[in-house]
Design goal:
heterodimer; A: mainly alpha; two-stranded antiparallel sheet; 48% helix; B: 435 residues; alpha/beta; Alkaline Phosphatase, subunit A; 2 domains; eight-stranded mixed beta sheet; two-stranded antiparallel ribbon; 34% helix; 16% strand
């Protein structure tokens, strides 16, 4: 159980390690921190959390509603159905809906729409593509477009591989045939820098950024000492790559570091919880050690050498300890928090890499419940995503029209307007630019798979034009210049051939219908009267070149924020 | 101990506590406040720097990406076991010696002050760059703007038709876009990498100017309707990005070095860094308040000396021509040139004849506006392992730069209900290098 205590605390990083200060004369600012005091009982105490057989969406609704009610926060109502269709399709399939999908959705009785929509999308090949794309930008953010890694991710998401298994694939990085081999890229792209291996594994899989504890104990987080940073590093310090590009481990290596007091210290195999693994490497004679070292050197150098395999594998130890960690459940909570943040715009813990006692979740019990549920259901991400997509908070309106202050972000009482990822934008641009009558029927699953593959290829050429949004994303003026002046936008997206949106619109005689078709194709909704009238008037004014007029009108929506954001 | 800064800090903390009494006692309440911090709600005192804006003070940051060696630049130690093979040479400033790899700059020391006593501790590329770009350790709850964004805001003019902050790179390694953080996208850099002229600045021939303007106006109508009821900094940034398009399109010619006389181009030379220095001069001349030119990649873990021979030659020549050109045009008195990287390099020469990351005792230089030239401030020990005199933090450096520009470094940005000084708490400007 977690008791909350709130109060202003003076936190002075400079004083926390008087010998080595980050900055001389630094006097820290006043921070308001909520401190969680953990009682002896585990946070995931079975007796306190909702029963395990509660549905994911009900559990979320319960805890989110509880915080809203307890704090008297005003919550907005549900978003219009068309908005929910767009939002859910973007989040589950990574693209805007097509015309046949909209028609299919509209014929479902309103009370059943959301569930049918979510279940349909989760069974579409699109979802595997989207999840793979998302994991790719998340796990290999700094080395994008890695074909081998993308192939692995798609293979894994298509078979709904569980998250713990994917963690094993990537961290154990065993040589394999076929797509599984691509999993080794997570380590191989970082293998030159043990700090990257350590930090990125901790950040991406455990929600923890320990890099601030490298040169000194973490200035702001009491939990983390240099022992933790170097402890985590020991799990990777023996990792190397052979000449045959196999990720291997050495038999011996020790991590030493200098404490802030100036002493040399030997790091132990220490996990973030403070749990320590004993090095089970047997004693080797000096001669045997030399022989092993020589074999490793050969493996690093020669194409035809096999690397010797030690019995004690630090990375295997790390994987095991991370998956066994029941007290803090960093591994499960991290992915819950990231899926949550991806779908609701901000995490239950923010920033996503700061899951520590000085920065507790907005809904601690919910995070515990979801982490427990995920573990109990074999780390099935689809189950988690489905539950979040069906909860009340997910489908709230994103507009706040009252004069009163809008509800704070941490309540999830209003939907967040979120920038599309680079790939969501690229794919959606391709869909919007296509003639709406060109899409296969919703039942034509095989045809749709081929369509998605071709859309992905088309999107590849556009993804690099857009910035991948981060937590404080702001649209750069470069993007506005791209939409305004780039030839590809004009010659490709706004082309008027029969297979394109403009090609379709120019065949529509009635301007009001044309505007409706345009709004539905680009914004996935029907225009209101004010918009329709403004657009029709614009089309009819100075109408010397009707196709050019249609093109420029379409541009106003494609370059607009309503298309650019998920809302 | 009653350090005046600390007293002031406590006094301020007390005042803030009462101000924050309204905070609710829930986790969600605190999260809500954290969320508000994303939007800087009261950037008061617009008038503070009004006069400065009119004076047209500017900054050129020459960013040595990857971390240049202080031994091979500003703090040579010839003869020491850590000193490497290069000699020190006298400069136009009495008693100041720098590395022989910078002979042209040595002749221009009258414009330049060196700080040899930076101790910034953080020696990984990401952390070091973030520290030296923002003058403070990254605080997870506070996305502080980098120097370029701060200067863009303080010295840029709202009605300006030129960019406020331009960032140029010469290599794909170490590319960092910079961040305007809580100041918002309005002050984010225009980022150039492969091309000298920003992409998509020119209007397509297939779109008429009338259509270009007309559709932009209609786009705004629909965009405003969408953003009206959304309290989102990201949506606002989309709006402001589009609002600047026409103005920026007019500044295209500034990026074209072809517009410079052949003899000027010849002076800067054919290197990309040289050409970008020339563009930087054109930009500051046109009123762009902050230009960053990055030269990569100084990260010489192996073959440090060859690397520095090559890179220092480029730096020495390009920076010297830039100083001369600015000076001849009367721009140097309004322009501060700051030469800096994320850290320096180890005294120890490793087995690959490289120097590794080192942030405990390293150097940077400042030239031009507000700077007392010919000064070498601070001192390291004979082998360059530690600072022995005049230790300066990144915050001190920021305070110095802001002071040189005439900006009060203690001026606070209000982020939510939290006052954040422009230079980190406790920073003191280094008056010895200030004019």
């Amino acid at each position: 159980m977690i008791f909350m205590a709130v109060g202003p605390f003076l936190i002075c990083p400079a004083n926390s390690h008087s010998g080595v200060m980050l900055m001389t004369r630094r006097i820290c600012s006043v921070l308001i921190y909520v401190v969680a005091l953990r009682s002896p009982a585990s946070p995931a105490d079975e007796n306190i959390l909702l029963p395990a057989d509660t549905s994911v969406q009900d559990a979320i609704d319960h805890y989110v509603q509880k915080a809203i009610a307890e704090n008297g926060v005003p919550a907005v109502g549900q978003a219009p159905d068309e908005a929910v269709l767009r939002r859910t399709t973007l989040d589950l399939s990574g693209r805007i809906p097509t015309q046949p999908e909209r028609e299919w959705y509209e014929q479902i009785p309103p009370s059943e729409r959301r569930e049918q929509l979510v279940d349909r999308l989760l069974n579409l090949p699109d979802t595997a593509f989207h999840l793979a794309n998302d994991l790719d930008s998340h796990l290999l953010r700094n080395s994008p477009y890695n074909g081998e890694f993308r192939e692995y991710l798609l293979w894994a998401t298509k078979q709904k591989r569980s998250w713990d298994q994917m963690f094993r694939d990537m961290l154990l990085a065993k040589p394999a045939e076929g797509p599984l081999q691509g999993a080794t890229q997570f380590l191989r792209t970082r293998i030159r820098e043990v700090d990257d291996l350590t930090n990125d594994t901790a950040i991406l899989f455990l929600g923890i950024n320990v890099s601030c504890a490298k040169c000194h104990d973490h200035p702001l987080v009491e939990d983390w000492k240099q022992d933790h940073f170097y402890g985590m590093q020991t799990f990777f310090s023996r990792t190397y790559q052979t000449k045959k590009n196999v990720v291997a481990e050495k038999f011996f290596d020790e991590v030493k570091f200098k404490t802030t007091g100036g002493d040399d210290k030997l790091a132990s195999f220490m996990f973030l919880t403070g749990d320590v693994v004993t090095d089970a490497t047997p004693d080797f004679s000096d001669e045997a050690r030399k022989e092993l070292d020589e074999k490793i050197r050969k493996a690093e150098r020669d194409d035809d050498s096999e690397a010797p395999v030690p019995e004690f594998s630090p990375r295997l130890q790390l994987v095991d300890i991370a998956l066994q960690d029941d007290s803090d459940a960093f591994f499960a909570k991290n992915i819950v928090n990231r899926v949550w943040a991806r779908m609701l715009g901000s995490g239950l813990v923010n920033p996503l890499d700061q899951m520590h006692s000085g920065n507790p979740p907005s809904h601690p019990e919910l995070l515990d419940w979801l982490a427990r549920d995920l573990k109990q259901h074999g780390y099935d991400l689809h189950r988690l995503i489905r539950g979040v997509a069906l909860c009340t908070a997910y489908a709230r309106d994103s507009e706040w029209s009252s004069a009163a202050e809008p509800p704070g972000e941490g309540y999830f009482a209003i939907a967040r307007t979120r920038a599309l990822t680079a790939r969501q934008l690229a794919l959606s641009l391709q869909i919007a630019a296509t003639s709406p009558g060109k899409w296969p029927d919703v039942a034509a699953c095989d045809e749709w798979t081929k369509m998605r593959e071709s859309l992905e290829k088309q999107a590849n050429g556009w993804v690099r034009e857009f910035e991948q949004p981060n937590e404080n994303f702001q649209v750069a003026v470069d993007e506005a210049l791209f939409f305004s002046n780039n030839a590809r936008v004009y010659d490709d997206v706004l082309r008027d051939s029969g297979d394109r949106l403009i090609g379709h619109l120019k065949t529509v005689d009635d301007d009001a219908q044309l505007v409706t078709d345009l709004w539905r194709a680009v914004l996935s909704r029907t225009p209101d009267d004010e918009e329709r009238n403004a657009a029709v008037a614009w089309l009819q004014r100075d109408n010397e070149d009707p196709v050019e007029k249609i093109r420029q009108l379409s541009w106003t929506l494609l370059a607009g924020p309503e298309f650019r954001f998920n809302h | 101990m009653s350090d005046p800064a600390e007293v002031e800090h406590r006094r301020r903390a007390k005042r803030d506590l009462s101000r924050r009494g309204f905070l609710t006692t829930t986790a969600a309440g605190t999260t809500a406040m954290a969320a508000d911090m994303g939007q800087i709600n009261a950037l008061q005192s617009e008038a503070v720097t009004k006069q400065l804006k009119q004076q047209g003070t500017r900054v050129i940051l020459l960013w040595l990406a990857g971390g240049a060696s202080q031994f091979e630049t500003w703090d040579p130690k010839p003869g020491a076991k850590t000193g490497g093979p290069f000699q020190a040479i006298p400069t136009s400033a009495n008693g100041v010696h720098i590395s022989e790899l910078l002979p042209e700059l040595a002749q221009r020391m009258q414009h330049t002050a060196i700080i040899r006593s930076l101790n910034t501790k953080i020696a990984d590329h990401g952390g070091g760059a973030s520290l030296m770009e923002t003058g403070r350790v990254r605080d997870p709850g506070l996305d502080f703007p980098d120097l370029g964004a701060v200067v863009a805001r303080e010295l840029g003019r709202l009605n300006s038709s030129v960019p406020d902050y331009v960032s140029l790179y010469t290599s794909t390694e170490g590319r960092r876009k910079g961040t305007s953080g809580v100041l918002g996208a309005r002050y984010a850099p225009m980022f150039l990498s492969d091309n000298m002229i920003p992409l998509n600045l020119a209007q397509l021939e297939s779109v008429t100017t009338v259509d270009h303007k007309d559709r932009a106006a209609l786009r705004d109508v629909f965009a405003k309707k969408f953003s009206k009821n959304r309290n989102s900094a990201a949506v606002d940034s989309h709006m402001s990005a589009y609002q600047r398009v026409r103005g920026l399109m007019a500044s295209e010619q500034l990026f074209n070095v072809e517009n410079e006389p052949a003899e000027v181009r010849a002076r800067y030379g054919p290197t990309q860094f040289g050409e970008q220095c020339l563009i930087a001069r054109r930009l500051v001349e046109a009123g762009v308040p902050f230009v960053k030119v990055a030269r990569a990649w100084w990260d010489s873990h192996g073959q440090n000396f060859e690397t520095h021979q090559e890179l220092c030659a480029d730096l020495d020549h390009s920076m010297s021509v830039l100083l001369d050109d600015l000076s001849e045009r009367g721009l140097l008195e309004n322009t501060l040139v700051l030469t800096l990287g994320e850290f320096g390099r180890t005294p120890r020469i490793n087995a690959s004849l490289g120097r590794d990351h080192f942030a405990n005792a390293w150097s940077c230089s400042l030239s031009g506006h507000g700077i007392r030239g010919g000064v070498a401030y601070g001192k390291t020990d004979p082998e360059g392992n530690t600072v022995v005199d005049g230790e300066a933090s990144s915050a001190d450096l920021f305070a110095t730069v802001l002071q040189a520009l005439g900006i009060d470094h203690e001026h606070e940005y209000m982020v939510g209900s939290r006052p954040i000084p422009m230079a980190d708490f406790g920073a003191s400007p280094i008056s010895d290098v200030l004019a």
